[in-house]
Amino acid sequence: MALRRTRWAVTVHERAPSLDPLGAGLVLWPNAVHALDAIGLGGAVRESALVLGESALRRPDGRFLSRTDGARISARHGAPLLGIRRSDLHALLTDAVGAEALRLGSEVHDPAALAADHDLLVGADGLRSRVRAAGWPGAQAAYAGYTAWRAVVRADVPVTGMSETWGRDERFGIVPMPGGWVYVFATATVGPGLRAGDGAAELAELRRRFGRWHAPIPALLDALEPDAVLRHDVDALPRVPARLHHGTTALLGDAAHAMQPNLGQGACLAIEDAVVLAHTLADGAPVERALEHYSALRRPRAVALSRASAGIGRVTQGVGPVGAAMRDAAVRLTPPRLVLRGSDRAAGWSPPALPSPV
Ligand SMILES: Cc1cc2nc3c(=O)[nH]c(=O)nc-3n(C[C@H](O)[C@H](O)[C@H](O)COP(=O)(O)OP(=O)(O)OC[C@H]3O[C@@H](n4cnc5c(N)ncnc54)[C@H](O)[C@@H]3O)c2cc1C
Predict the structure, then answer these.
(1) Where are the extended beta strands (E) located within 247-296?
(2) Residue 134 Cβ contacting ligand 1 at under 6 Å
(3) How far is the C-alpha of 216 from the C-alpha of 203, rounded, in Å?
(4) Ligand 1 in contact with 110 (CB < 6 A)?
């Protein structure tokens, strides 16, 4: 959508044979909402999403460590904090792109050949990017030391804001979605590749770990269908590559800077990348020069947020009792205005201008 604004004819190669509803939920921070506005999709996304009333950190016994009013986040950054189902965001984006540009079941095996046949190749192929593997052989994702569960659940419990509850080795997050759905996620510090088993076994593992945490966590777990539980180990790129392009190939999203999910910014940055990429290609400069500009604009932000996200991982997974008590005290003693100001680094981003639609 962003490249089309700059008069590019785009083909999207997607290896999935069909666009089935997938994934759980996503938080879209104001920076992503601004980026979606820049490509004309902000209105539709707002209609499919829920404005989050609060962003809170809690302890397993329910005590609040910090609470930030969602309205103050919106007012500070000029766009709302939204919860949306991944399947709804996918549907909206694919409808906007249109069937004629989207090739399903089209797995890219040879990125170099594709690049040679086209003016520009954008590797937006995720954490295990083949485009990155081909052009950046040393840049591989590695296990971050913890696993994650995700699910959406329809539960008869009032949830208006998002919250994350921090234990010593574990976290549990709650994000309300439209239509009475709730997105829940959880993490635990464990060795890589371990699995409890099928959905029922993973749900039993979640109950074992979080069933005695504060309300409404037990009620949400009780309402969860085993088939809805997704489990993935958290992998991230230890370092963002020195350049996000080679020749006429650019990396975007997790392919460029897969980071730990602790800021809820991975997809938000992917959307930002798209807008900045289109902006750098808008003035008709040679593609290689435009991509140099793209790398220079995007890499520092990706490095800063990857580091910040890894830092949160370090203080929330595998911390001792003293470390957890110090962490909780530090968060509790941070004045609300500083917490709000702390959102500036990630959420306080505005998109560059793009040409109006044709
Ligand atoms: C537990 C967890 C919670 C998260 N929560 C949030 C959140 O709240 N907010 C947020 O902004 N981010 C969040 N993220 C991060 C977010 O999920 C990712 O950053 C985001 O999905 C990256 O988008 P992407 O388009 O770059 O890659 P992907 O979403 O991985 O998409 C890549 C696409 O490329 C296709 N593909 C791959 N290889 C090929 C090939 N060779 N040929 C053709 N097609 C191919 C895949 O099928 C896929 O459709 C979270 C991540 C985790 C693990």
Answers:
(1) 249-251
(2) no
(3) 16
(4) no
pLDDT tens-place values along the chain, 358 residues long: 999 988 899 999 999 998 877 778 999 999 999 999 999 999 999 999 999 999 999 999 999 999 999 999 999 999 999 999 999 999 999 999 988 999 999 999 999 999 999 999 999 999 999 999 999 999 999 999 999 999 999 988 888 899 999 999 999 999 999 999 999 999 999 999 988 889 999 999 999 999 999 999 999 999 999 999 999 999 999 999 999 999 999 999 999 999 999 999 999 999 999 999 999 999 888 999 999 999 999 999 999 999 999 999 999 998 999 999 999 999 999 999 999 999 999 999 999 989 887 6
264 lines ligand 1 (CB under 6 A): yes
For ligand 1, atom 50, name the residue with the nearest CA.
Answer: 261
Q: Is 26 in the pocket of ligand 1 (CB under 6 A)?
A: yes
Q: Which two tokens stand for residue 193?
A: 């590749």
Question: Which domains are seen in the chain, by residue range?
Answer: 2-142+237-347 (3.50.50.60), 143-236 (3.30.9.30)
Atom of ligand 1 nearest to the CA of 27: 8
**Ligand 1 midpoint to CA 328 (Å):** 31
Cβ of 253 below 6 Å from ligand 1:
yes
Helix 266-280, helix 287-316: angle, nearest 10: 160
Q: Is the CB of 126 under 6 A from ligand 1?
A: yes
Task: Count CB neighbours of 296 within 10 A.
Answer: 13
Instruction: Take atom 23 of ligand 1 and give the residue whose Cα is closest.
Output: 267
> Phi and psi of 255, rounded to 5°?
-60, -35
> What separation in Å is there between the alpha carbon of 45 and the centre of ligand 1?
18
Q: How far is the CA of 75 from the centre of ligand 1 (A)?
A: 29
| Phi-psi group of 90: left, alpha or beta (phi > 0 → left; psi -120 to 50 → alpha; rest → beta) | alpha
Which residue is listed with tokens 């006429």?
Answer: 248
Q: What pTM was estimated for this model as a whole?
A: 0.96
